[in-house]
Amino acid sequence: MDELSPQPTRGRAAVSNLGSRFEREQRVRIDDGWGCDGGLPEKLRTIVMADAARSIISRNDSPDIPFDSSVNPYRGCEHGCVYCFARPTHAYLGLSPGLDFETKLFAKRDAAALLARELRSRSYVCRTLALGANTDPYQPVEREEGITREILSVCRDFNQPVSIITKSANVLRDLDILAPMAADGLAHVAMSITSLDRDLARTMEPRASTPGKRLEAVRTLTGAGVPVAVLTSPMIPALNDHEMEAILEAAADAGATAASYILLRLPLEIADLFGEWLRTHYPDRAERVLSLIRQSRDGALYRSEFGTRMKGTGAYADLLRSRFRLAIKRLGLDRRRWEMDCSKFRVPAAPVRQLSLF
Question: For residue range 149-173, what is the model confidence (pLDDT) as tens digits?
């Protein structure tokens, strides 16, 4: 029996359901000679399950990210970005970081209540909350779940500063909350735009908003007074890196006032998933892309050391860094401030419950 090459599934980025680092066995598709390859269905449904979280604010002490507190309404992400650094977290749930990450989602339906409880704690010290630092808070299932809007309502009630990270134009749904908060220095948005090429974006991020819709969202947000930064992340050598200046120019034209970038990161299972995707969709340049990544990671596909993991090292990484710095200076996109006004934080009166007569 022959092993079959992985085939893409309609509307999904990962090509397969590669097993995680915790599994002893790996599954492969084979041709058994009877027309049955044991493969995946042509179309995969999204399944949303409840996540019984007991706390909602995650904290980190990483020196190379600008926040130490974050809230994530969902585990897994239907946007399906093939390069997503959050994919390996699905392995902790006994699921694949591949297609499972895009199709088997967990919704934290008690998130707003948990957040309100944590904000009321006497030990809580106000810091800017990053909303969606791990998976996108405005992925498609948010239309039905509405968890992100509930979280924003809590932030509004407490005057809790929040920074949203997304690649979805659906953020505009909550402009009625974000605009007043932004006027008080309590909200801003970071919009991720990885390419202006609609075909590349569809292949790489199949269920995220199109590049055009993201830029229009930037324009609408800034027009309503919400500060917006553009994230040209990740930059992938020989795939989208040539677009860096064009993305930054388009974002500046739409009203963005700040920008950042990250060189593609391939930790844990993402290296195999990305390589599989690359050889399936861009076989003509796959080895060139991987070679440039290795040149920027001291010969490996990934190095996790603080200080270099986000930007890489070597000649290619230095060139990318110089291009970015020159572009943001020219375009006036070097004004990003992460911290917002925490002095306005307040704990509202707790709701009064009606006592029962009996």
Answer: 999 999 999 999 999 999 999 999 9
Taking a C-beta distance cutoff of 8 angstroms, is the pair 274, 237 a contact?
Answer: no
Task: Calculate Rg over the CA atoms of the chain.
Answer: 21
- The C-alpha atoms of residue 146 and residue 195 are separated, in whole angstroms, by 28
Task: Please give the model's pTM, rounded to 2 decimal places.
Answer: 0.91
- Rounded Cα distance between 160 and 149, Å, is 14
| Cα–Cα distance measured from residue 297 to residue 34, given in angstroms and rounded to the nearest whole number | 45
Main-chain phi, psi angles of 114, to 5 degrees: -65, -40
* Domains of the chain, residue spans: 2-36+44-338
pLDDT for 135 equals 96
DSSP 17-41: ----TT-S-----EE-SSS------
- Exposure string of 56-84, with b = 16+ CB inside 10 Å and e = fewer, is bbeeeeeeeeebebbbbbbbbbbbbbbbb
Instruction: Supply 278's token pair.
Output: 């690359």
pLDDT number for residue 353: 60
Instruction: Say what the pLDDT of residue 64 is.
Output: 85
Q: How far apart are CA 186 and CA 39, in angstroms?
A: 48
Q: What share of the chain is helix, strand, coil (3-state, %, to 5)?
A: 35, 15, 50
Classify residue 128 by its DSSP letter. P
| Cβ-based burial of 39 (10 A; exposed 0-12, middle 13-18, buried ≥19) | middle
Q: Does domain 2-36+44-338 have CATH number 3.40.50.300?
A: no
pLDDT score of 3: 53
* Cα 273 to Cα 164: distance, rounded to the nearest angstrom: 27
Report d(CA 67, CA 183) in Å as an integer.
Answer: 21
Question: Helical H runs in the chain?
Answer: 99-103, 111-120, 142-145, 147-158, 175-183, 198-204, 211-223, 244-254, 270-281, 286-295, 314-331
The SS3 call for residue 174 is helix
Name the helix (H) or strand (E) containing 3. strand 2-3
Write out residues in the chain with pLDDT < 70, as ranges.
Answer: 1-6, 25-42, 336-339, 352-358
For residue 149 the two structure tokens come to 């809007």
Pair of tokens at residue 15: 């090509």
Cβ atoms within 10 Å of 89's Cβ, excluding its own:
18
